[in-house]
Amino acid sequence: AHADATILIVDDEPSIVRLLTRALQAEGYSSIQGYTDSIEALAALNTVTPDLIVLDINMPGMSGYDFLNDLSQRLTEDTFLPVLMVSGLSEAETRIQALQAGAQNFLTKPIDIKLFLAHVRSLLETRFMSLRLNEVRGVLEELVRRRTAQLQQAHLEILDRLGRVAEYRDDATGRHTDRVGELLQVLHRCK
Prior knowledge:
By secondary structure, this protein is α/β, with parallel strands linked by helices.
């Protein structure tokens, strides 16, 4: 599922990037970009919209935490972009810090490929579900805008018709309601 998803792998160890890339390709994923330089990977986000980022914590130049911090500032509030952190550090505090920094999942090195692929599938499913929800929300918001405009128009038509009914009930007033409306428009323009 989601074989067309764009996956970014950011790890300063080329062997890890190759291993994860091969595992993803064997699973049918075709749009994989690997980076051993976290700064270069962050710059790639200017032109690439990934569906998942696999990110190491300890890297020269920019740590995974710094990468996450910069990434969070680029995303809008309603954008869900999953990050799977990988690290040779297995302490509970490291996991907690990674999750608090914005990662959705955490794996320790050496990476169990079956577990890695299960995390990838799960995170991509959540990503694409989030995208579908955003699309549906956009459609519903447009529907609400249209319906609100229709209701406002209907409200104005009802008021106009009630005014006309009032005019026709009493021949002495004739166009009284229209004259009051025209006078109010003149007064409003004079302000």
